[in-house]
Each structure stands twice: as C-alpha cells, then as structure tokens.
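Hello,

Our lab assistant flagged a job as stuck in the queue for most of the afternoon. It eventually completed. Since we weren't sure the result was trustworthy after the delay, we are filing this so someone can double-check. Below is the sequence as submitted and the structure that was eventually returned. Let us know if re-running is recommended.
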Amino acid sequence: MMEKERSDELLNRGAKAYQSETPEGFRTAVRYYLESASLGNGQAMTNLGYVIPMGGA
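-- returned structure --
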C-alpha cells in the first residue's frame, strides 16, 4: 500500500474510533491519528487537536 493510501486508511480508522465517543475510542483514535500524521496527513494532525482535549491523551 502506498504511503498516502496508508495514511488515509489510518485517518479513517481513527475517525471511526472517535465516533464511539468513549474514552477508549478517543485513545484509539489518537493512536491512529498519530500514525497517520507521521506519514504527513494534515487532516490527522488537525484531528489530534480535537480528540486529545476530549480524553484521548
């Protein structure tokens, strides 16, 4: 899988976890968003700013 496709897949997994609106879901979302962001995904970087204050850290 190419890096862009991988980062998008991780972003989507993070979004799905975030939608659970549970502390565990937020922590899972952070893991996916961090990995996606490390691949250069700007949306994942933005999403981290939303999920961390909600208990994802």
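-- support follow-up --
The delay was a queue issue, not a problem with the job. The result is valid. The two ends are 28 Å apart (CA to CA). The first helix runs from residue 3 to 18.
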